[in-house]
């Protein structure tokens, strides 16, 4: 039995890649880790397979024939939340950031170590399953008109529900649980993503996405403030000053 599934249903992973060698290697490593793996050869096939049997996580190649990985990710997210780890052979940072901005939880650049990919899959699944586990309760977290309920995984602002991804919710909950403290991107990567190493631009992009959903004016953030040279701070009562939403130096 997979640690991340149930006694009768191991974690269902949909691997979307038109390269049969990559798909076979990734699939075999995930199956050895106890996952149930299904392979889709292109974006259209992926959407059809997800419709028939919704996966617990999607490993999604960015470069696909027909519908590319970005569009597949958008369409999956439009239907319901699902963790996505994106694969890309491109070295350009803009492509990786675009993948994160459309909702990918993580990415791995080809060529990659299959063992590293399995570790990233396990990390995302662990957090997903922990969030959904019965008894995973905690006090309501509030800041201004923002409310986060860890028990139901719901976040609202002024009574309206916020459409947050898994990582965005965890990031907001982490900030609200530690108001006014300054957090480095390394700390956020470790505590929210569960990684002691990784591309810190992942944190930067998720902070930008979170600001777009909770701030009145993301260019003048009132809640999530950049502390230049250090990281970020969540200020429940801050007035907000103009700042460039770039990487924390």
TrEMBL record:
<feature type="domain" description="OmpR/PhoB-type">
    <location>
        <begin position="138"/>
        <end position="236"/>
    </location>
</feature>
<dbReference type="Pfam" id="PF00072">
    <property type="entry name" value="Response_reg"/>
</dbReference>
<dbReference type="InterPro" id="IPR001867">
    <property type="entry name" value="OmpR/PhoB-type_DNA-bd"/>
</dbReference>
<dbReference type="InterPro" id="IPR036388">
    <property type="entry name" value="WH-like_DNA-bd_sf"/>
</dbReference>
<dbReference type="InterPro" id="IPR011006">
    <property type="entry name" value="CheY-like_superfamily"/>
</dbReference>
<feature type="modified residue" description="4-aspartylphosphate">
    <location>
        <position position="61"/>
    </location>
</feature>
<protein>
    <submittedName>
        <fullName>Response regulator transcription factor</fullName>
    </submittedName>
</protein>
<keyword id="KW-0805">Transcription regulation</keyword>
<dbReference type="InterPro" id="IPR001789">
    <property type="entry name" value="Sig_transdc_resp-reg_receiver"/>
</dbReference>
<dbReference type="InterPro" id="IPR016032">
    <property type="entry name" value="Sig_transdc_resp-reg_C-effctor"/>
</dbReference>
<dbReference type="InterPro" id="IPR039420">
    <property type="entry name" value="WalR-like"/>
</dbReference>
<keyword id="KW-0238">DNA-binding</keyword>
<keyword id="KW-0804">Transcription</keyword>
<feature type="DNA-binding region" description="OmpR/PhoB-type">
    <location>
        <begin position="138"/>
        <end position="236"/>
    </location>
</feature>
<feature type="domain" description="Response regulatory">
    <location>
        <begin position="12"/>
        <end position="125"/>
    </location>
</feature>
<keyword id="KW-0597">Phosphoprotein</keyword>
<dbReference type="Pfam" id="PF00486">
    <property type="entry name" value="Trans_reg_C"/>
</dbReference>
């Amino acid at each position: 039995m997979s640690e991340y599934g149930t006694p009768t249903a191991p974690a269902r992973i949909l691997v979307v890649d038109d390269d049969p060698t990559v798909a076979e290697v990734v699939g075999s490593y995930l199956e050895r880790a106890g996952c149930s793996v299904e392979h889709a050869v292109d974006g259209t096939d992926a959407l059809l397979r997800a419709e028939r049997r919704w996966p617990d996580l999607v490993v999604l190649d960015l470069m696909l024939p027909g519908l590319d990985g970005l569009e597949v990710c958008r369409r999956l997210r439009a239907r319901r939340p699902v963790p996505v780890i994106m694969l890309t052979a491109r070295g350009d940072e803009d492509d990786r950031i675009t993948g994160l901005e459309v909702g990918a939880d993580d990415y791995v650049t080809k060529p990659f170590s299959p063992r590293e990919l399995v570790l990233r899959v396990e990390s995302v699944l662990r957090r997903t399953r922990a969030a959904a586990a019965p008894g995973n309760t905690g006090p309501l977290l509030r800041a201004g008109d923002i409310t986060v309920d860890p028990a139901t995984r719901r976040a609202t602002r002024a009574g309206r529900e916020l459409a947050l991804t898994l990582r965005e919710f965890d990031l907001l909950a982490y900030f609200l649980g530690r108001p006014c403290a300054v957090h480095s991107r390394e700390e956020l990567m470790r505590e929210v993503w569960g990684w002691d190493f990784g591309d810190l631009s992942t944190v930067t992009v998720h902070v930008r996405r979170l600001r777009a959903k909770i701030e009145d004016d993301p260019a003048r953030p009132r809640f999530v403030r950049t502390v230049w040279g250090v990281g970020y701070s969540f200020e429940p009562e801050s007035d907000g000053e103009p700042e460039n939403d770039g990487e924390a130096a």
